[in-house]
């Protein structure tokens, strides 16, 4: 097995004059849950469509599970489950019937066990109760669940999921997260795109950040966190005086807010900061050492905020 489940080199897509994806070098480690993160319109869906061979790159290329695409599509695609925008479900068929059609189209599986596969997939996404309902009567969340079930009809080595929690309520979102964790625990590699940082924080081991068509950062999440330097945060009625003390101690990026001063600690021990504040008679109401959250980290990487609320 290759070390990288997905690897692209210079993958690019132009629509007319617009460059939607610009020389993306993806490296998705085998066994990872890779969060493909970026604001709306940053090129995630276009990249995923190229990965799956649904659209042709303008330039560049890639491998899936070590196999060159699209030449090896016929042999590698059966090992891959995908969820991309607009799955072709039939509106007048039920969830079960739709899955039956998709399952029948897969020549690599035994038709005799179709019922078991379909039942298990519907169960995993929590759609058993609505399995007999027509697709056209499904809510957006139910449609999304059915698309996930379709991606998991057979055991997969790699799942590529475009915004898998799109349209789901908070409960559904939690279920999808635990589903992704379970799939990863079973040994699958999962690449999921999202514009929600919380999603990445909670399930992903690795992150790739898209910004205006370019992959601006890619690393294991733990590495990104380790690179994040903690800040000392002082709650006080005299933020300006507190800020002066922080600067004198050598803290950097010192900032003040109403009743608060903060700065990047660097090598300065926190207890020294507290002692210096007390020595300078700054009334300290609270003191904390906080690691930046992912949002701050990514803003610093991309210079742009994310739609964290969804
Ligand atoms: N078929 C197309 N024709 C022209 N432009 C397109 C086409 N598909 C995508 N684009 C453009 O390419 C850019 C990237 O779009 P893409 O859908 O890949 O972004 P995204 O990161 O997936 O965003 P979202 O989270 O909104 O789905 C956008 O500016 C979009 O308008």
Question: Would you spell out the secondary-structure blueprint of this structure?
Answer:
Layout: E1 4-15, E2 18-24, E3 27-29, E4 33-37, H1 44-51, E5 59-64, E6 67-69, H2 73-76, E7 80-83, H3 95-105, H4 114-124, H5 140-151, E8 158-162, H6 170-185, E9 189-194, H7 197-203, E10 206-211, E11 214-220, H8 221-227, E12 231-236, H9 239-249, E13 252-257, E14 260-264, H10 270-279, E15 284-290, H11 294-302
Parallel strand pairs: 4-9, 4-10, 7-8, 8-9
Antiparallel strand pairs: 1-2, 1-3, 1-5, 5-6, 10-11, 12-14, 12-15, 13-14
Question: Outline of this structure?
Answer:
The chain has 310 residues and is of the alpha/beta class. 34% of the residues lie in helices and 28% in strands. The protein is elongated and about 80 Å long.
How is this structure best described in words?
- The chain has 310 residues and is of the alpha/beta class.
- The chain has 2 domains: 222 residues, Rossmann fold; 62 residues, 2-Layer Sandwich (Alpha-Beta Plaits).
- The strands form 3 sheets. It has a 6-stranded mixed beta sheet, with helices on both faces.
- Strand 10 and strand 11 form a beta hairpin.
- Helix 3 packs across helix 4.
- The longest helix is centred in the middle third of the chain and has 16 residues.
- The mean pLDDT is 89.
- The chain binds adenosine-5'-triphosphate.
- Adenosine-5'-triphosphate binds next to strand 2 and helix 1.
């Amino acid at each position: 097995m290759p070390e990288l489940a997905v690897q692209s080199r210079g993958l690019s897509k132009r629509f007319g004059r617009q460059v939607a994806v610009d020389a993306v070098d993806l490296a998705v480690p085998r066994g990872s849950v890779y969060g493909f993160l970026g604001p709306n319109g940053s090129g995630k869906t276009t990249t995923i469509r190229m990965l799956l061979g649904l659209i042709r790159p303008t330039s560049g290329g890639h491998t899936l599970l070590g196999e060159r695409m699209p030449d090896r599509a016929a042999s590698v695609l059966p090992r891959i489950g995908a969820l991309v925008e607009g799955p072709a479900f039939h509106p007048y068929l039920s969830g079960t019937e739709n899955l039956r059609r998709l399952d029948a189209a897969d020549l690599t599986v035994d038709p005799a066990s179709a019922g078991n596969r379909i039942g298990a997939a519907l169960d995993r996404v929590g759609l058993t109760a609505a399995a007999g309902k027509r697709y056209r009567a499904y809510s957006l969340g139910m449609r999304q669940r059915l698309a996930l079930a379709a991606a998991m009809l057979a055991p997969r080595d790699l799942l590529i999921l475009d915004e898998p929690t799109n349209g789901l309520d908070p409960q559904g979102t939690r279920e999808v997260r635990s589903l992704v964790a379970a799939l990863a625990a079973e040994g699958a590699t999962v690449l999921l795109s999202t514009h929600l940082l919380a999603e990445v924080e909670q399930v992903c081991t690795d992150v790739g950040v898209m910004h205006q068509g370019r992959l601006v950062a890619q690393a294991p999440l733990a590495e990104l966190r380790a690179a994040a330097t903690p800040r000392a945060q002082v709650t006080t009625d005299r933020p300006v005086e507190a800020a002066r003390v922080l600067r004198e101690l050598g803290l950097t990026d010192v900032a003040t807010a109403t009743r608060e001063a903060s700065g990047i600690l660097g090598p300065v021990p926190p207890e020294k900061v507290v002692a210096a504040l007390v020595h300078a008679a700054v009334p300290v109401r609270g003191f904390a050492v906080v690691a930046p959250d992912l949002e701050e980290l990514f803003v610093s990487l991309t210079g742009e905020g994310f739609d964290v609320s969804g």
